[in-house]
Design a protein that fits this description.
The complex is a heterodimer.
Chain A: E1 4-13, E2 16-26, E3 31-35, H1 42-49, E4 57-62, E5 65-66, H2 72-78, E6 79-82, H3 94-99, H4 113-125, H5 141-154, E7 159-163, H6 171-188, E8 191-195, H7 199-205, E9 208-213, E10 216-221, H8 223-226, H9 229-236, E11 238-245, E12 248-256
Parallel strand pairs in A: 3-8, 3-9, 6-7, 7-8
Antiparallel strand pairs in A: 1-2, 1-4, 4-5, 9-10, 11-12
Chain B: H1 3-25, H2 34-37, H3 44-77, H4 89-102, H5 110-132, H6 138-161, H7 166-176, H8 185-203, H9 206-211, H10 215-221, H11 226-248, H12 254-262, H13 274-294, H14 303-326
Helix pairs in contact in B: 1-3, 1-13, 3-8, 3-11, 3-12, 3-13, 4-5, 4-6, 4-7, 4-11, 5-6, 5-11, 8-11, 12-13
The chains are: A alpha/beta, B mainly alpha.
Chain lengths: 259, 327
Amino acid sequence: MSDLIAEGLNVALGGKSILAGVSARFRPGQVTAVVGPNGAGKSTFLACLAGLRRPDVGRVLLGESPIQALPHRERARRIGFLPQSAEVAWAVDVETLVGLGRTPHSGARGLGVGDRAAVHAALERTHMTALARRDVTTLSGGERARALLARVLAGEPTWLLADEPLAGLDPGHQLDTVDLLRAFAAETGHGVIMTLHDLGVALRLADRVVVLSGGGLIADAGPLEALTPDVLARAYGVQAAIVDGVSGPMIELIGRSRG
Amino acid sequence: MSLKRIGLLGGLLLAVAVLAIASLMAGKVWVPWSAWTGGAGDPRWAIIFQLRVPRTILGVAVGAALGLSGAAMQGYTRNPLADPGILGVSSAAALGAVLTLYLSLASSAPWVLAAAAMISAALGVVAMLAMAGTASGTITFILAGVILNTIASAGVALALSLAPSPWAAQEIINWLLGSLTDRSAADVQLALPFILAGCGLLLSLGKAFDALTLGDTGARALGVNLAAVRVVLAVGVGLATGASVAVTGMIGFVGLIVPHMLRPLVGHRPGALLLPSALGGAVLVLAGDILVRLTPAAAEVKLGVAMAALGGPFFLAMLISMRRRLA
């Protein structure tokens, strides 16, 4: 299993700096949450890690190999990416959608036996088997999110990168999705990196939290070490306290920090 | 290949074959089967081999090129309204061809007009994609297509109004009104290789179009090289549509109607839609051309006009079903 390593990433868009010298090392078997305020560069960072955006300066390594040097297909086999947009352009059925995850593996003649097995395993894992024949456009938001997650899982990636996988989901479906991602990391020993808005979820359910603010990395540690009141004040401009909840620590928002 | 797909492709192939035979027989002069066994001495042989055979081959080839171009452009743009006619690619091809007529270059060699049509069709695709940019919304593509269509049509109209002689203007008009009438074996030789090459390129993009169901980012994440897809698409549509327009003029709506009707039969997969759309395009153009020939009128109705007459009501039907879905 290879580490995924960001080395001094700089990205500017239209003269505005999005990422400035971000370095981090991600290890397999962990679920990492990338958090930060709006416009902190979370999605750009994730796109760089996935090899979908070339940083202006710096590089991303998958083990020893620079990710931009990998052939597209090879990169796609190793890194599964779940985009933020839940776009599904055509009214295909769930099984066809999930089958798209096999694109980097399958030949020109369509899905083989191994591909179909992977699709069925992904449907099983996400509890979508019963809905396999359903038209994707008729699914509820939660079902659609599970179908798209199954699409990534079907590719059997060694790294699963998800951009805001919880956006637009109710609390129950948020927990379902995080459970699936955690199970994936725990059972396969592969790595998961996701951008998140919900600090509570990051604190409780991530193995590790990376905090971005203003294009820079300001914390990179276990959840309790990363999400300190000081870091939250710097990143979000809020006054917060870590308090004991019924089942563990939680973040209590007090208000805007002054000054 | 699933049984369902074999059935669909088989049915379409059968329809192409039946219509091709009908196309060889039907017309002002009805050529019955017995003429085929009469040997070269039969005067009806001339009708079959000099008129009907090239016309039928072109009907199949042009129909396949237009149907496939439409399905490919819809797959790339993820927009069911994309079609070489609607997005201005056919107009761009026509502009290239008309310019050679206007500048009297077309008579120097037969390939000049065809080459101009193909190159300007490919440039049209490139311009349309460039104008639409990376945003892939329905509106931006349609708007880019409308712009291309408008500019190219204005160019055609300009060439027409500035035509050096009434004779030249008549030639341009005749050519613009798409038709398969009186096409020769030379036209077939000119267009067929390019149409086949263009169709081959477009058929190779099936997997990429499937992946594009997940959007640009989704497709790239699945390892699809979108820059390469764009080049192949532009060249493929340029060759297929450009060569078609070069020999038959503008025949619209084939690329719109055929993929729309076949999409539910292939489970809405854009890649699986390509080959059936080619066959369906051949069916539609052959059927349209046969009907046009049989229409009792002093002059033959142009196929392009007939297709446009079919396209209007078709758009209306699409609109009604969309409104019903949104209501």
